[in-house]
Structure to design on (134 residues):
């Protein structure tokens, strides 16, 4: 059974690009364009990882993360913050808000897929402190 990823991305073009790429790499994808849609989907589905645009219009990134983490269906699912902003401190702020990781666009395909695989493996083995396997 493939991993299920929730892609929360305001930009339709970015969302289409991500979902196409991820589906081609064997992931099952759920899509949301805002926080409300993401929370609704996350309340109905078992999700293994969330890719979250941190610049959504309806809720700020920190509040979206807090609400997602409160849902039982997302217990243990890593949230990866996604942004086009590569400014100093952005990754640290995302982690402080509850993200397991942070990536900026554009990102190299191999780096992106490796990041996802690493976080999914860590979540499956007991969390971010678990040693990654081969």
């Amino acid at each position: 059974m493939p991993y299920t990823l929730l892609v929360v991305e305001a930009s339709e073009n970015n969302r289409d690009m991500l979902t196409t790429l991820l589906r081609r790499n064997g992931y099952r994808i759920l899509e949301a364009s805002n926080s409300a849609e993401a929370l609704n989907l996350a309340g109905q589905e078992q999700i293994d990882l969330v890719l979250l645009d941190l610049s959504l219009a309806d809720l700020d990134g920190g509040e979206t993360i807090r609400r997602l983490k409160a849902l039982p269906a997302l217990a243990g699912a890593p949230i990866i913050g996604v942004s086009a902003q590569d400014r100093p401190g952005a990754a640290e702020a995302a982690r402080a808000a509850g993200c397991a990781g942070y990536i900026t666009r554009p990102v190299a395909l191999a780096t992106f897929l490796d990041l996802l695989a690493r976080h999914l493996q860590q979540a499956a083995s007991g969390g971010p402190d678990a040693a990654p396997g081969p």
